[in-house]
Amino acid sequence: MGRKLIIDPVTRIEGHGKVTIQLDDDNNVIDAKLLVVEFRGFEKFIQGHPYWEAPMLLQRICGICFVSHHLCGAKALDDMVGVGYSTHNLITPTAEKMRRLGHYAQQLQSHATAYFYCIVPEMMLGMDAAPEKRNVLGLVAADPELIKRVVMLRKWGQELIQAVLGKKMHGISSIPGGVNNNLTAEVRDRFIKGDATIPSIDQMLEYSMEGLQLFYDFHEKNRAMVDSFGDAPALDMCLVDDNGDVDYYHGKMRIVDNDKKVVRELDYHDYLDHFSEATEEWSYMKFPFLKELGREKGSVRVGPLARVNVTKSYSTPLAQAALEKFHAYNKGKCSNKALHTNWARAIEILHSAELIKVLLRDPDLQKDQLLVTPTEAMWTGEGVGVVEAPRGTLLHHYRANKEGNITFANLVVATTQNNQVMNRTVRSVAEAYLGGQAEITEGMMNAIEVGIRAFDPCLSCATHALGEMPLEVTLLDAKGNQIDERRK
Amino acid sequence: MMIQLKIDGKNINARAGTPLMDVALENGVYIPALCYVKGQPCLGTCRVCSVKVGGVVAAACTVPVVHGMEVEVNEPEVTDMRKALVESLFAEGTHNCPSCEKSGRCDLQAVGYEVGMMVSRFEYRFTPRQRDYASEKILLERDRCIFCQRCVDFVRDEETGQKIFSISGRGANSRIEINAELANKMTSEQVTRAVNLCPVGTIVEKGVGFNEPIGKRKFEIKSVRERALAGDHK
Ligand code: SF4
Ligand code: FES
Ligand SMILES: [Fe+2]
Question: Where are the alpha helices (DSSP H) in A330-371?
């Protein structure tokens, strides 16, 4: 008689997910799945609203990556009113740079939160440390100085988000054709030099370097584990510029195979021509894949690991050095290793901080040309926006009628793109940690969660629902009888 | 003719016949208002300016001052009455401030802050009213209308003087309407004026939302109270 293990819900991720693992009589893993059990349809709700409200309303899907949704929506609206990249009528440099500044600030803030609050606890305290210690509070006890810096890194990102969008959460900066504000020299100087409430940008670079060092130390001590944990082969995808380097705000979608050969490069407006979505009755989250290759071969990974795999280089020196080290370590091939995602995330924290530093010195941010006002004739009534959100490629697609009323909306979020790969990771970790074991420990179950958390999945975004849940682990036999249960 | 009256015990000289609202504001006493527009005929629809005159509740914008008048503004019972009136407006329509483009420049929201409203004591009705997209430049977000009638009386076709906005139905079934044909003839200045005149986010210029950054919006720069006391009542 086999057994079925359930982790419900998975903790320290955004939203409500659940894992089930089916074991046979010899305790071999015969199936492992990540299920997404909440659903809320923002795409339906937004219909009938005026189109210019979309970036404002749809960012409320998420309490973490709202800036990405806001920008993605704004880019889709640019298209709709006839300005931006799909036309010859680009938004102004000030507008684009303000958007980028908010975007990088969010990446810094979001990655710092995911990395230090959800991932570092296991790195520093061990995957099988007692659950009550294995969290950010445990870190406070283990290294209070580190935590002070971490909190500051996150706060600094939030303050910059507020400076650009007016609020720490769910503010407004982008409007169709541009932005509603620039950055005054006074505010800029606050971030460059720091003040009584926040440190300088150079200090942020230092903290980011320390964050990366934390990974290096961990890797050094646990090389075998880190390099074997949660191996999940997949294609890698992100937005790239003309040099083939990642661009978090705009670019072509590039998809590479394990040898970094470009499998496909596309204008994101053609996304639907290239991708299909599979559905499973056990999950609300879809499984997108490249049509031509089929689901097994054509599923892509997005997010920090994918971007670090795809990008050839960075324009900033410290991140570039870190990237070279990563590429050399993986011998020029793409890494499929779940815990390398945390490495990639630490590199991207540094990259964001450096990009912010460069932008803060750009005088375009103080200029007044904020908006391109399109004529009525430019109206197209349809728009697609794509950005690299912290968790990966995010797409918004809207249609509106001539009167200005949204008739259609579709969102494809990073966590959905990663669905197949996350499921592969769960299976791989389950086989390695639970397969053949007679007794299942809490630490083993946690290993599964560590694999999922490496993706920093946002199930709220993926299903457009919101929630924060305690952990519940249920152990069932093949007949569904409850053998054991744990809660935190 | 100059007369004397008392507001909250303070002796005040004023010109006979001036609206009590104006006299109070000129003398530094703030009274909330949602339909009154200084210099325009009084509408008296919102009652948010209720005060006690000789112990009797009256709308300050509708009362001309006379000699010997005794007015109570900051008196507990009528103060709570004003708050209740504002709360009832929030309960009657659908007001999602966090995602509304009028936020920060909305009279209702600003007055809500002034009367210290935290939550409505009345049950929220979430009245479903449809949006009206029919005119080219204006969107009507009907579920936000408080029926002040500013637009009805003060926005007119420049050629014929005809009304562009009107209210159909009665009581709970009242609905703000727009004459799309006349509205399409409005100049962009007229559209802007109508948008600003509406104390809530019902009259919205199409395509122009969220164009002022948070922190720099009308009532964030200067509160509704400061504006009213400075004689800037719309
Ligand atoms: S639309 Fe605005 S101005 Fe007109 S009655 Fe309603 S609230 Fe008053
Ligand atoms: S302001 Fe006096 S009744 Fe509305
Ligand atoms: Fe999210």
Answer: 340-360
User: Residue B183 and residue B95: Cα distance in Å, rounded?
Assistant: 25
CATH number at residue B44: 3.10.20.740
Whole-complex ipTM? 0.87
Q: Do B101 and A404 touch (CB under 8 A)?
A: no
User: Domain range for residue B169?
Assistant: 86-224
8 A C-beta contact, residue A431 and residue A424: no
With a 6 A CB cut-off, is B155 part of the ligand 1 pocket?
no
The total number of residues written for chain A in this structure: 488
Mark whether B51 and B94 lie in a shared domain: no
Indicate the residue of A56, A81, A167 with minimum beta-carbon distance to B99: A56
Whether B54 and B106 share a structural domain:
no
Nearest CA in chain B to A166: B214
Task: Please count the other Cβ atoms lying within 10 Å of the Cβ belonging to residue A306.
Answer: 31
How far is A125 from A130, CA to CA, in rounded Å? 9
What is the tally of structural domains in chain B?
2
Residues of B in contact with A102 (CB under 8 A): none
For residue B197, being part of any structural domain is answered with yes
Q: Domain A41-417: give its CATH architecture.
A: Orthogonal Bundle (1.10)
Contact B212 A167 (CB under 8 A): no
From first to last of its 488 residues, chain A has per-residue pLDDT tens of 577 777 777 766 666 777 888 888 888 888 888 877 555 578 888 899 999 999 888 888 877 889 999 999 999 999 999 998 777 889 999 999 999 999 999 999 999 988 887 788 877 787 777 777 777 777 778 888 888 888 899 999 999 999 999 988 888 999 999 999 999 999 999 999 999 999 999 999 999 999 999 999 999 999 999 999 999 999 999 999 999 999 999 999 999 999 999 999 999 999 999 999 998 887 878 899 999 999 999 999 999 999 999 999 999 999 999 999 999 999 999 999 999 999 999 999 999 999 999 999 999 999 999 999 888 889 999 999 999 999 999 999 999 999 999 999 988 888 889 999 999 998 898 888 888 777 778 788 788 888 888 888 766 555 543 333 333 444 455 555 555 544 43
Read off the DSSP letter of residue B42. -
- Tell me the pairing of strands B175-178 and B56-59: unpaired
B70 and B99 assigned to the same domain: no
> Rounded CA gap, A393 and A253, in Å?
9
Q: Which residues surround ligand 3, an ion (CB under 5 A)?
A: A 62, 64-65, 458, 461
Q: Residue A57: which of B99, B139, B207 has the nearest Cβ?
A: B99
